[in-house]
Fold this protein.
Amino acid sequence: MAGIYIHIPFCKQACHYCDFHFSTGLKRQPEMVDAISQEIILRKEEQSPDIKTIYFGGGTPSLLSKEQILSVLETINAHFEVSLNAEITLEANPDDLSLEKIKELAQTPINRLSIGVQSFFEEDLQLMNRAHNQAEALSSIQNAKKYFDNISIDLIYGIPKMSEARWRENLEITLSLEVPHISSYALTVGPNTALRKMIDKGKVAPVEDALAKAHFDILQRVMSEAGFVNYEFSNYGKPGYFSKNNTAYWMGESYLGIGPSAHSYHQGVRSWNVANNIKYIKAIENKSLPLEQETLSVNDAYNEYVMTRLRTMWGIDLAEVEKLFGATYVNYLAKELPAFVEKELLEKKGEKYTITQKGKFLSDGIAADLFYIE
Ligand code: SF4
């Protein structure tokens, strides 16, 4: 079983914090959809033909028309075996989700929407240069709920000047909308982003770890009281609504990444497509794959396992570590892990070690301490 990820590299405008690959020139969208379908065909034998998740990410996949979505899905169906209960997600921005658009999406096999709300407050949306406003954030979800049951909302915390009260209010509005899944990320400032420049010029206050931590603590408390399971550091789901796509990725399962900048993973080999729309389209037209690849060493694969698993509720499983990486790594962990249990940063249940509430915000640092350095 595998997943397919489709990267749609277009956005109406550039959010100030974004460092994903996208272009605001939309005119190549039809060529891009053709190239994506061609790449699916070119790579159909690379991984298992049995597909359990399809994920349209970006960029802004909600810029695609119903016909374009259907044509990509038809290509996948013609060359792969898609499970009858496959999770098929489309990332959507609120400004695209008119009632009309939602009705169209409901006529496709898409069965999960991930809506990039980020905040319900005008001030935050403007600071981040999001294309939607507060009213669209609300109406997109209210309308989506009429046609979709499986909806996720993205929210960003740690935004400069966002008070704890406003963050709480964001969460209260989210909960009042009764969606079954929330992904919530701390605002990060990548080196080549507009936000970095604005902070450096003193136009925007810097992002502070202490604020992000205070918001994270509120998030944890509010979501847990509302019956959500924090199954991964940034992801909260009601039982039965965990993202199958993301979970497969954290569990080290194979996925085929299609489109410019998309990453793929299969049996220890990771590959990534060129992050340039024109180069991508040209290469695919010439029937060549614009990708680079690397084979992970056992050591790199172990370090990645530790990093990813400590962020999830499934944790590090020593029996699995032995099976995947061998005795050296289990012996190393058996020596290192007890100190973290003693500090109440990790919890031991049989052969499994999971992060505690106290350790959650420190999970990346704990993982780094558990890396094996050859
Ligand atoms: S909509 Fe998403 S991908 Fe596009 S610029 Fe904003 S954050 Fe980046």
Q: What stands out?
A: The longest strand covers residues 81-92.
